[in-house]
Amino acid sequence: MTTLENLYRRLLAWYPADHRAAHEEEMLDVLLSAAKPGQKQPSVIDTLDLLYGAVRIRLRRAVGGTSGSVWPEALSIAGFLAMLMLVADGVRFAVNSPQIVTHFLPVQREGGEPFFDRLSFYFGTAPYWLAWVVIAVLAWCGARRAAARAACAVTAVQFALVIYGVGFPEIGIGWIGASLGGVPLPLALVASASLVASPGPGHGARSLGRRGVAGAVVSAAVLIAVTSTPLFTLINQEHLGEVWYSELSGGSFLRWDRTQLAGVLLTALFLAGLLARTPQGRRAAALFMLGGAPLIVQVGRFSMGTPAEYPELSYLLVQSLIGFALVMLVVRFIEHSLKTQARGRDKTPA
């Protein structure tokens, strides 16, 4: 056995035993045939690719088990919804951009804060939203491995920025990290997990069907509308120009915040009804609430007049877990009731 072959076998040892028994020799032949003459060690790309494949297979089995679990499909549905909402948030950012520019340019001409600080404050999250649009396109086109790598990389950078932003929210790019530490973080984690440890968001979309996907897209559009600056100015100022904050009363903002809360709650109820029909859909609703619960809490606080604050990671984690736990309690109650009714029908004499 050559040194290169031995090193490749060590990497392949990370795969489950039954997978190695079925595919190890074939994978080894492919790796050795692609090796360069005189190569003594696996390349960095091959090493990372093999380790990524091993982790992915083991995560899938850990989530899915061997008893026909519905969790992998639930994760794929939740991943589709999470990715859709991240793309929708990017669309909202794009919709708001023209009005942001009308506010940014006059302030910049008047001087004040340095150009880079002002630019990062208004447009610093643009690369993040663009990255998730690219990831969604890759996933939709079938390039799932590239989408998974990109999602994991973007989420890792996001997590690092969030940690930096929590500690230094007003320094440099700290504001960008703080702004990405709310609802986008759990959504990004769910979407990334779906790409790595489930059949994928594309499979989740197929599981929902055309009507389900259309309903999810309409829900995303509603959230874009009720959180967009153009609609706010159109309702309160009857035009789509710059927001005249000094001429608006506090009641205008409070009414708008309550409109947002109503839109978010109606969207949540609609998605709950959409997903409640199947066991995997109900579990997808619980997973999606990892990001949905912080959104409801955030909009609810605004509607009560509480000043906007970016949540600490510990609070964000608590909100996400409480949302997941509450939905799972409802799911267990519903499924227990359905099983009880089914047993009662079976015992009823013909």
End-to-end gap: 70 Å
Question: In percent terms, what proportion of residues is strand?
Answer: under 5%
Rg is: 24 Å
**Helical coverage, percent range:** over 70%
Topology:
Elements: H1 3-12, H2 17-34, H3 44-64, H4 71-109, H5 115-123, H6 126-140, H7 144-167, H8 174-179, H9 184-197, H10 201-226, H11 229-237, H12 250-275, H13 279-303, H14 313-347
Helix pairs in contact: 1-2, 4-5, 4-6, 4-9, 4-10, 4-13, 6-7, 7-9, 9-13, 10-12, 12-13, 13-14
Can you describe what's shown?
The protein is globular, with a radius of gyration of 24 Å. It folds into two domains: 3-61, no CATH class; 70-343, no CATH class. It is built from 14 helices and no strands. By secondary structure, it is mostly helical. It has helices at 3-12, 17-34, 44-64, 71-109, 115-123, 126-140, 144-167, 174-179, 184-197, 201-226, 229-237, 250-275, 279-303, 313-347. The mean pLDDT is 81. α1 runs antiparallel to α2 (17-34), α4 (71-109) packs antiparallel against α6 (126-140) and α9 (184-197) packs antiparallel against α13. Helices cover 79% and strands 0% of the residues.
